[in-house]
Amino acid sequence: MSATPANNRRVLSGMRPTGALHLGNYHGALKNWVELQYQYECYFFVADIHALTTGYEDTSQLESNVWNVVIDWLAAGLNPASSTIFIQSRVPEHSELHLLLSMVTPLSWLERVPTYKDQQEQLKDKDLAMYGFLGYPLLQAADILLYKTAFVPVGEDQVAHVEITREVARRFNHIYGREPDFEAKVEKALKALGTRNSTRYSELRRLYQEKGDAEAIAKAHSLLEGTARLTLADRERLIGYLEGTGRSYLVEPEVLLTATPKVPGLDGRKMSKSYGNTIGLREDPDQVAKKLKGMVTDPARQRRTDPGDPDKCPVFDLHKIYSSSDTQAWAAQGCRTAGIGCLDCKKPVIDAVVAQLRDMQARAKEFEENRDLVRGIIAEGNEKARDVARQTLDEVHQAMGMNYR
Ligand code: TRP
Ligand code: SF4
After folding, report:
1. Looking at the CA of 319, which ligand is closest?
2. In what order do the strands lie in the sheet with 254-255?
3. Which of 42, 44, 143, 257 to probe ligand 1 with, by most ligand atoms within 8 A of CB?
4. Hey, what long-range contacts does 61-68 have (CB within 8 A, 24 or more apart)?
5. What are 333-382's pLDDT values in tens digits?
6. pLDDT band for position 1 (50/70/90)?
7. By C-alpha distance, which of 162, 141, 146, 123 is closest to 50?
8. Its GO biological process terms (predicted)?
9. Nearest-CA neighbor of 377 among 25, 78, 128?
10. Does residue 255 sit in helix, strand or coil?
11. Of all atoms in ligand 2, which is nearest to the CA of residue 334?
12. Which atom of ligand 1 lies closest to the CA of 12?
């Protein structure tokens, strides 16, 4: 039940490099990341180890997939001056934290994550009865906890993974936050807070512990954040003491659910690689124009003279993403009165998609032709990420009694 510390603005998210990105990935995640990078302290990484959990057999495309994802991110507007962009496996702390957390993660927690059985059923042609696949959500937990992440921007389908991350953090803090002299250290930390603040803190703690008052805990967090006199360790102790665990080494993250538009594929179903109905970010724009001309529309509109219903038409969902409200009104009206044909209706959408793809592809091409620049961006991102990751791992080692050398 830990609220996120008030001044923690850290955002982290990852994407598996499983092939060419498409408009669904762009509107469903990437576009949002591009906006977040100017509001938060952002970390975005290519989850290449996660890609191995289902793609362990054929890794021949892994490297090219990794670089293509990075180039698509950059072409879409992720800015290495604003966000830290890196590759999961190049920051080995992810793997180590995953392993250490695996010691205290009950098997049953992993088995009951809904994606575990769902994915196994969906990918029947692959043998997913692997240790690594079961551990998928725990690796994701390690990704998130390693950076003391406050917010994880992900879709609905990933909420369960953030939830298990919170549980793992709580369990870790509970088991290892009990320093031998925890109570005495809390006493000292309370003194450091000053009389007024420590009275207020104790009051809020009582409100939370006796009445489960969530607001009290949020207030206590901001009180602790606002006190410059506290050391990081003391702050973690007082946060843990609030909730009745031990010192709070690992931070419980929250999901940052963002409204993303519905992105239909060419067949009218949700755009998804597994449906084979995608429009790739690197596809030839002329090909894309052709494909869009053939895109499914309201099935009731068989002939040009039949009126249609834009609410039943996937093309209209694309209008909602790409068209001004005037154009949308024009399309809806023309559709309902059979005043325009579907090809007329599609034209502004096709033009907008094609223009967007040309734009992104021009930028992608620049990065394609300057691989050293891309490698440099990632090398720098890996290093920046590692600096943060190492610090957390040091604390984890200390918590677990493993800081011998
Ligand atoms: N599982 C995520 C997905 O499939 C990718 C991912 C891996 C991730 N690690 C993460 C997302 C950490 C957010 C945070 O989309
Ligand atoms: Fe869809 Fe437009 Fe055709 Fe109506 S006119 S069915 S909204 S493509």
Report:
1. 2
2. 83-87, 41-46, 10-15, 151-152, 254-255
3. 143
4. 61/19, 62/17, 65/17, 65/18, 65/19, 66/17, 67/371, 67/374, 68/17, 68/20, 68/21, 68/282
5. 999 999 999 999 999 999 999 999 999 999 999 999 999 999 999 999 99
6. very low
7. 141
8. tryptophanyl-tRNA aminoacylation
9. 78
10. strand
11. 5
12. 14
Q: What average pLDDT does this structure show over 5-32?
A: 91
* Domain 10-176+254-261+370-399 identical in fold to domain 282-368: no
Note the CATH architecture for domain 282-368.
Answer: Orthogonal Bundle (1.10)
Q: What is the pLDDT of residue 274?
A: 85
Say whether pLDDT at 3 is over 80.
no
User: Which ligand is closest to the CA of 338, given by its number?
Assistant: 2
Q: Measured on CA atoms in the order 211, 213, 216, 220, is the torsion positive or negative?
A: positive
What are the residue ranges spanned by the domains of the chain?
10-176+254-261+370-399, 182-242, 282-368
- 346 in contact with ligand 2, CB cutoff 6 A: yes
Question: 195-202 — which CB contacts under 8 Å span 24+ positions?
Answer: 197/223, 197/227, 201/238, 201/242
25 is in an annotated binding site: yes
For residue 42, which of 5, 81, 4 has the smallest C-alpha distance? 81
- In angstroms, the CA 3 to CA 251 distance is 9
Alpha helices in 179-324 (DSSP H): 182-193, 195-211, 214-225, 232-243, 285-293, 314-322
Classified by CATH at the fold level, domain 10-176+254-261+370-399 comes out as Rossmann fold (3.40.50)
Which residue's CA is the closest to the ligand 2 atom numbered 3? 342
Q: Measured from the CA of 47, which atom of ligand 1 is nearest?
A: 7
